[in-house]
Design a protein that fits this description.
Chain lengths: 307, 307, 307, 307
C-alpha cells in the first residue's frame, strides 16, 4: 500500500476538474467573497500520521461543522439527558425547516438541523453568560485542535447575526413550546459565533480525531467524551450529517461526516483517522461539491468505507 | 314580527343553559380571571335601532376581532395592493400554524390568521412610529364606535407581549422570506396593543355597522371604506372569521363574523344590522360557545342568514 | 331596473374579450376536444323568469358541479349523520390533496374536495348496486332540471374511469382508515358516471333553483331538501365551492357557487335566482376564466352579492 | 476472546427479561397468533462459522426484511438506474406515510418505506408475470440462504393482500404521477407474497452474508451484487432500516440493519458476519423489542459497532 500522503494526493488530483462546479454560499458577503476555487484536504491518523493537500492550512468558516463540537460539549454537560430535548432521527426535511417542529411539539429531530443546534446552544448557555459560553466552545475547539490560535471570524459572526431571521423564527417557535429557556437573542449570538469559528483542514481533521478513537484524543491522550457517546455522535453524523443529502453521502462515502456551508466537510474513519476537506463551491444540497468528490475518491483508494 | 329587542331577548334567553359550557382562555392571567359566566349581546341596525341583552355594556378584550379593523385600515392605505402581501383564502390550518408559510414562501393565507395579521400590522407601521400606529388604530375604532372613551387594556397588552413567542416565530420566519419590513419587536408591540383594545358588545356592534352598509357608517354618514372593499372584508369574515371552524359557523349562522379569544364575536347582517355577542367560555376551536349559540338562535328567529 | 335578460346580456357582452383566456382541461381527450371558445349563461329566478345568453342550451360535462347534487342526496338519506363522515371546513389544499387525510385520520375536510365526494358516493352506494346508485343520481338531476333527456356522457365517464389513479389512491387510503365501506372500484364507477353527466347552462340553473328557495323547487313546488340543510349546502358552496380559490370567488362574486373542470359554474342567489355559466377555458385554479368574469359582472349589475 | 457461540449466548441471556415487553403485530390474524415470547438469534461469519440461540431454527414471516432482497434484485436488473425511480434518503416520516409523495412528485424517499418497496416491486414485475416475479424473488432468497425448502406462507400472503388498502392507496397515488407501470393488483400480489416469505434466523443470517462480504456470498463463493452496490444497500440499511427509529438503532447498535413487523431483524457486520434475531413483540416504532436489545448487547460484547 502506498503512503498516506500518496493516497491523499492521488484522490485529490483525480478530482481537480470538479473544483469549478457548484455555487459558493452567498447569503452573507463575508462568505460570498471567499475565493471559489480553493481546495484543501488533510488527514490525521489515530497514530499521529499526517497528510495534507492544497489549501489545507488555510482557514475558512466551519459553519455547521461546529454542531459536532456543540453536541460533544452538551453530552459532557448533560449526558444522555440532552436527548430529551433534541431527537436523534433524520428529519427528512431541509436543514432550516419548521414544519416538523409544529407536528412534534417543538422538539427538533436531531442536533444537526438548525432547530436542534439552537436547542443545544440553549442548553450550553444555562447558567453562563454569552461570553463564557462562546469562550467555552472556542476553548474546546482549540483544545481538540491542539492550537490556541484558532479564533472566531467576527465579521462572519456579525453578518450571520444580522441575517438570522430564519433561526430566530425557529427559536421563538420552539420557545412557544417551552423548548428554549434562554433569551433568544443570546442563543443566536452564541450560535452565530460558534458557526463563525475559522479553521483550516489541518486543524479540523486534528480536532475531530477523538471521534475516530472512541472519544479520546489519541495524540494528547485526553478523554474528550465517553466512548458510547462518541459512537452516538458518529451515528448522528452518518445519518444526519449532510442535511437532506445524508443518504447520498452514505452511499458515496460510507463514513460518518459533517458538512458546513462554508465548504468544509469532516469525516471520521473509526479506529483509523479523521479527514477534513474544503472547497467553497456547494452542490444543490449545500455540501461542498469537490470536497465530497475528493472524499469519495479517497475512500475508494483507502477502502475506508465502513459499510 | 316582534320588535328587535324582543327577538334578541328571545334568542338570548333560549341559550342561557349554554353559558356554563366551555373553557375561558387562560394563556395570560388578565384573560384567565375574567368572570367565566358573563354573557352580553347587542344589535345596531343600519337605521340606528338598538337592542341589548345582559352584560352588553361591559368591556372585554376584543383580541382577534381587531383584525377586522386592521384590514380596513390597510385597505384604505394600500388599496388592493395589500392583497399582494396577504392572501384571501381559507388556510385549513390552526390560526397560529407556521406550516403553510414554509410551503408558500412566507405569504400568509389571509389577514385573520395570526401570520396575516402580523403582515397587516407591518404594512400599517410603515413610515409611522409604534405610538402613531397604535393611536391610529385606536382612533379608528373610537370613530367607528362613535365613542372616544375606548382604550387599550395595558395589562392585557403587556401580558400578551411578554408571551408572544409564537407570533415572534411567525414574524421572524416571514421576515426571512422578506415579507416583513419593520422591526419585529415593533410589529409585536403594535399587534399586542391592537388585540388588547377593550370594548363592550354595544361598542363593537356600533363599530362594525359600516360593514353592514356597504362601507359607510349609516348613522354618522361617514364613508369608511369603499363598497367593494367592504364586501371583500365580509367575504373574508364569512370564509375565515372563525379560525379552523369557519365552516361550522357558516353552517350554523350563515353570516360574516369574526371571533376573538376574549369570547367576543361580531357579525355583519348585510344591509340590515351589526351584532356583537360576548361570553368568555370558548369551544374547542377557540370561539365563544354561548356566543355562537346565541347567534344561531338569533338568526333562526330573524331569518338573517344570507345563504 | 332593466329586465333580467338585459342585465344578463350586459354582463356577458362586457366580458367577451375574456373568453380566449385560460386553458381547457386536457387530462382526458373527451374534455380536451371541447371547442375552447364556447360561452353560455342562463338564469332562472325563483319566480320562474328565465334569461339565456350564447351557448346556454348546449350540453357540457358538469364534473364537480355534480358534488352539489350528491351531497343533497346524501343529506336526504343520512341527514346530519353524513357530517360524521365528511367535514364542512375549507381544506386549504388542492382539491386532490391527500396530505390532510393522513393528518386527520382519513376524514376528508368537505364534500367538495375529491376525497369528500368519494365518501359521499360510498354512502350513497350502501345497499345499492352501481346501476341503482348511478340511476338514482341521474334521476335526481333530471327531476331537479325538470328534463328527462339529461344523460351521462359515457365516453367521458369511461375515460375518467380509466385515468382515476389519483382518486383510487384517495379512496384506498381512506378505506385503510375504515372510512370507505364499498368496493373501491364501484365507488369510482359511480363517481365517474356522476361527474360525466352532461347538462346545459339552462338545465343547470334550473336544477340548482331549489337551493335559492330554501330547499324547495319553487316552480314544481316540490321539497327537495330541508331548509336548514339547503342553507348548509349554500354555506359549503360559499366556503369551498371553488377549490383553493374559494376566497377569490367570494371576493369577486360574493355568492355561493360551485365550479367544474368542464368550465361550468352554478351560483345560488338566495331567495332570488340560480345562475349557470359555461366557458371551457380555465384559470390557474381550475375554474372557468370567462365564466367567473361574467358572474362578477352580473353581480355588479344586479347587486346580488349577499355580503 | 471467547468463542462466537459464547458471545451470542452471553448477549442473549443478558436480555431474556426483555422478551415479555412490547406488542405483537396484530393487523392480520396469521401474525397475531404467533407465540409472543419466542426468541431466536443466529450468526454466520464470512469465514463460515455459525452460532445459534433459542428459536433460531424456527420460521417466521420476514415481512419488510424482504425489501433488502428486493432492492438487491432490482440493482442487479436495473443497476444505478433504479435510483431514478426511488430515492436513497431517510424519509423522516412513518413507513406508510403518503405526505412526502405529494410534495415530491410521487417519488418515494427510499426502497425501505412501503412506497419505495412498491416501486421496486413494479420495476421487478416489468416483462414478467406475477408468478415468474414471485418465483424469482423466492429463488433468490433460497439461493442466498442455500436452502431450497424456504417457502411463502400463503395464509399470511392472502391475509396481507386482503388488507392492503394503505399500500393500494400509495400505489395508485404514485401511478397518478406515472411512477408505477404495472397493474396495481399485480404489484400488491407480488409485494404481499414477498413479505410473507417464512424464514428462520439461521436462514436469514446466512442469506444476508453477501452484504457482509462486499456483495459476494463467501461460502458459496457466488457474486450476488457488485461491491459498490452492496455497500450502498448497507448504507440504506444504516440510514433507513428501522423505519422512523433508524437513528435510535444506529445509536444503540451502530450497524446496518433491517427490521420486519414479524419481529425479525437482520444486521450486517461488514467484513465479519451477518446476524439475525427474532422476537415477535414490537416496540412503539414497530421493531422487535427484545431483538434490538439482544443486538445491542451483542455489539457491546463483540465490539462490532462500525461507528
Amino acid at each position: 500500500m502506498s503512503s498516506l500522503q500518496a493516497q491523499l494526493d492521488l484522490a485529490c488530483e483525480s478530482i481537480q476538474h470538479e473544483i469549478g462546479i457548484g455555487k459558493v454560499a452567498d447569503y452573507i458577503p463575508a462568505l460570498a467573497r471567499v475565493p471559489a476555487d480553493k481546495f484543501g484536504a488533510a488527514i490525521v491518523t489515530v497514530g499521529g500520521e499526517k497528510a495534507s493537500f492544497g489549501d489545507a492550512s488555510e482557514s475558512f468558516s466551519i459553519q455547521s461543522i461546529s454542531k459536532v463540537f456543540a453536541i460533544t460539549a452538551a453530552l459532557n454537560r448533560y449526558e444522555h439527558r440532552i436527548w430529551d430535548r433534541v431527537g436523534h432521527e433524520p428529519s427528512g426535511n431541509a436543514f432550516n425547516s419548521i414544519v416538523q417542529l409544529e407536528k412534534e411539539n417543538g422538539i427538533p429531530r436531531n442536533p444537526f438541523i438548525n432547530a436542534g443546534a439552537l436547542v443545544v446552544t440553549d442548553a450550553l448557555l444555562k447558567d453562563q453568560s454569552i461570553t463564557e459560553c462562546s469562550d467555552q466552545m472556542l476553548g474546546l475547539v482549540q483544545q481538540l485542535a491542539d492550537d490556541h490560535t484558532i479564533t472566531v471570524d467576527n465579521e462572519v459572526a456579525q453578518s450571520e447575526r444580522s441575517t438570522s431571521d430564519r433561526n430566530a423564527g425557529l427559536a421563538h417557535f420552539m420557545r412557544s413550546f417551552g423548548r428554549i429557556e434562554s433569551d433568544i437573542s443570546d442563543v443566536l449570538d452564541v450560535y452565530c459565533r460558534q458557526c463563525a469559528i475559522a479553521m483550516s483542514c489541518e486543524q479540523l481533521a486534528r480536532s475531530t480525531l477523538y471521534l475516530a478513537n472512541g472519544g479520546t484524543d489519541p495524540i494528547a491522550e485526553i478523554p474528550i467524551v465517553e466512548e458510547e457517546r462518541a459512537r452516538r455522535i458518529n451515528a448522528m453524523m452518518m445519518l444526519c450529517g449532510h442535511y437532506d443529502a445524508s443518504g447520498d453521502f452514505a452511499h458515496r462515502v460510507g463514513l460518518p461526516g459533517k458538512s458546513g456551508v462554508g465548504g468544509g466537510i469532516v469525516v471520521v474513519v473509526p479506529d483509523v483517522a479523521a479527514v477534513a476537506v474544503w472547497s467553497p463551491r456547494l452542490n444543490a444540497n449545500g455540501n461542498s461539491h469537490a470536497g465530497t468528490a475528493a472524499l469519495e475518491a479517497l475512500v475508494r483508494i483507502t477502502k475506508w468505507n465502513v459499510l
